[in-house]
Design a protein that fits this description.
The protein has about 180 residues and is α+β, with helices and mostly antiparallel strands. The chain is about 30% helix and about 15% strand. This is Calpain catalytic domain-containing protein.
């Protein structure tokens, strides 16, 4: 459905952007973008809206092979029984996250392809930066120092737990809940 068919008076961004806006789909890294305006508006260019010269298309930028590339999509989003199927905003009139995920799915060939991706890959594609994987089962002795330094330098952090799809809210030996 087009956004105008989903909701009356859709908005790209309503009242700013926040990590709490997002009901996650396959693109968990998108919430991290909201923490830094310069990253958010690099990926979600601010020169587009539903009012000024609206043509039913949006563009997003991703870092690929050493340069920023533009991905253009239309305003149709997959729905089931009138509800968005993938990532969406808690505000039913705001669509930046759903459109961003659609553009990222287009970049990778399909929504299904996003299921095999990692937070690290998505962060690199959305920041142009480098990521480092740290296995928490074998952390470096200076992990806390590295994290504090990273925060001071404005680094973004993501984490994930390999979860058994048949167990929900299982407590791990380190106290984390998956």
């Amino acid at each position: 459905q087009t956004l105008g068919e989903i909701v009356r008076d859709p908005l790209l961004i309503s009242e700013g952007h926040s990590r709490f806006d997002v009901v996650q789909g396959e693109l968990a890294a998108a919430a991290n973008l909201t923490l830094r305006d310069e990253l958010f508006y690099r990926v979600v260019p601010p020169d587009q809206s539903f009012t000024d010269n609206y043509a039913g298309i949006f563009h997003f930028q991703f870092w690929q092979y050493g340069k920023w590339i533009d991905v253009v999509i239309d305003d149709r989003l997959p729905t089931s029984n009138g509800e968005l199927m993938y990532m969406h905003s808690k505000d039913n009139r705001e669509f930046w996250s759903a459109l961003l995920e659609k553009a990222y799915a287009k970049l990778h060939g399909s929504y299904e392809a996003l299921k095999g991706g990692t937070t690290s890959e998505a962060l690199e594609d959305m920041t142009g930066g480098l990521t480092e994987f740290i296995d928490i089962n074998e952390p470096p002795s200076n992990l806390m120092e590295l994290m504090i330094r990273g925060v001071e330098m404005g680094s973004l952090f993501g984490c994930s737990i390999e979860a058994d799809p048949y167990k929900w809210e299982a407590r791990l030996s380190n106290g984390l809940i998956k």
